[in-house]
Design a protein that fits this description.
Blueprint: H1 2-8, H2 10-27, E1 29-31, E2 37-43, E3 46-51, H3 69-79, E4 84-90, E5 96-103, H4 114-120, H5 124-127, E6 135-140, H6 148-162, H7 172-178, E7 183-187, H8 192-196, H9 211-218, H10 268-280, E8 284-290, E9 296-297, H11 307-323, H12 332-335, H13 348-356, E10 359-365, E11 372-373, E12 379-380, H14 384-405, H15 408-411
Parallel strand pairs: 6-7, 6-8, 8-10
Antiparallel strand pairs: 1-2, 2-3, 4-5, 5-7, 9-10, 11-12
Helix pairs in contact: 3-6, 6-14, 7-14, 10-13, 11-14
Bound molecules: zinc ion.
């Protein structure tokens, strides 16, 4: 059937292909009846209309701001010497998902499943003989339009490899804490399909207007209005054949990986994460997102026994953010109260927890594209430098928490028998 229709359309294709190429290559933009200037964004087999003004690149992009697939892979292959780069999977759209590994993996497997180890009341039986090794897993860009986590991950790798972030700022604490954990795995772009759908290095700054960022991240209608959050989650997988721009949320199969069908057929990106989690049995997963006024950890839907570990992690990260001026106030007592953490629904982090026992936590960053407002109407402006500082502080303090608390084997020790 396909061959026949291809043949039938061959003449059409020959005739029209140069015209299509002209449209994309020369003009790239066209006017709609209402006078709105639109651009065509191609993604896989689909084309989407996006208001041209939404795709204006930021002026004076800082040199540390590396976020595109090409920029990140160039950076990795030029910089990573101490670590190892490995392709851990291929996205639905055929793009490599890369992880960078530091330190030694757990040497041996355990004797039972994670669930079995809970029944046995000793996670050692799942985690294996070197159960007390500490393993940290960092994820960024599960949502492809959330660039801050990618910038943070790239600069964290720079600190580990060279002692400095890409601004030349040193982070001696990160290098010191690195020595105290056994294994570090960083995935700068979990969802390259979603990232590829947004043809920008950095969005223009829109003051307090989040329309452009949300359009690009969670999708929008042909007239430039946003679909909105959480409405975008009503349809998974999203039908790319419908009008509108799907944003950077889903992979090329239309699935938002944060809300995959975890007990059914997994998307390749989720499968790659699950396989990695099974091999490495991480203690702590930090899952970087964008969508907060000030950086904020969300309480995961996970085993209740992990509540004290989450509360402690929250205090580590939020107290340092507060003292560095990256919270609402510098009052570390109020800013570090873990009861303020929003409660997540069941999602990728809950699934990772139940898969391998890790405490897996979403961290929401403020956006480079717009500023949020505090309750008293104050605009919470974050410069790109502040956004990067928050990312690196979060990784630093989360790693410190892991090193000092000793990881899952210490958080839930087996009862004396
Ligand atoms: Zn997100």
């Amino acid at each position: 059937m396909e061959t026949k229709s291809d043949n039938q359309n061959a003449g059409w294709t020959k005739l029209h292909l140069p015209l299509c190429a002209l449209l994309v290559f020369f003009s790239g933009t066209f006017l709609k009846a209402n006078g709105q200037e639109l651009k065509i964004v191609k993604s896989g087999h689909h084309s989407f209309e996006v208001p041209a003004s939404y795709l204006e690149e930021r002026e004076n992009i800082p040199s540390f701001w590396l976020t595109t697939i090409e920029e990140v892979s160039d950076f990795l292959y030029h910089t990573v010497r101490k670590g190892r780069i490995k392709v851990i999977g291929t996205s639905a759209g055929g793009r490599p998902v890369r992880a960078i590994f530091y330190g030694k993996p757990r040497a041996e497997e355990g004797t039972t499943t994670f669930s079995g180890s809970l029944g046995f009341r000793d996670v050692k039986a799942y985690r294996g003989p070197d159960h007390d090794k500490t393993v940290y897993l960092g994820l960024a860009a599960v949502h492809g339009g959330e660039f801050e986590g990618i910038v943070g991950m790239v600069n964290l790798i720079s600190v580990i490899e060279t002692g400095q972030d890409l601004r030349g700022k040193e982070w001696p604490e990160i290098n010191k804490i690195m020595e105290q954990i056994d294994r570090l795995i960083l995935i700068p772009m979990v969802n390259p399909d979603g990232r590829a759908r947004i043809p920008l290095r950095m969005e223009a700054y829109q003051e307090t207007d989040h329309t452009v960022h949300e359009f690009l991240n969670t999708g929008g209608n042909p007239d430039g209005t946003i679909i909105g959050w959480p409405q975008i989650k009503e349809f998974i997988p999203l039908d790319f054949g419908k009008p509108g721009f799907p944003g950077g949320y889903p992979n090329d199969a239309g699935v938002n990986i944060q809300h995959d069908n975890f007990f059914g057929t997994l998307q390749p990106e989720t499968q790659a994460l699950f396989d990695l989690a099974e091999r490495e049995r991480p203690d702590l997963v930090i899952n970087m997102h964008t969508g907060a006024v000030y950086m904020n950890l969300h309480r995961p839907f996970s085993e209740p026994v992990l509540k004290p570990a989450f509360n402690s992690l929250y205090k580590y990260v939020h107290s340092k953010l507060a003292s560095e001026g990256l919270q609402y106030t510098k009052n570390t007592e109020t800013e570090t109260n873990p009861e303020r953490a929003p409660q997540s629904v069941f999602n990728l982090d809950g699934a990772l927890n139940l898969h391998c026992g890790a405490l897996s936590v979403v961290v929401e960053s403020p956006s480079h594209s717009f500023s949020g407002k505090t309750k008293n109407g104050k605009t919470a402006v974050h410069t790109p430098e502040m956004l990067l500082d928050a990312q690196l502080i979060c990784h630093q303090e989360a790693m410190r928490f892991l090193a000092e608390s000793g990881g899952r084997s210490k958080w839930t020790p087996a009862p004396k028998r």
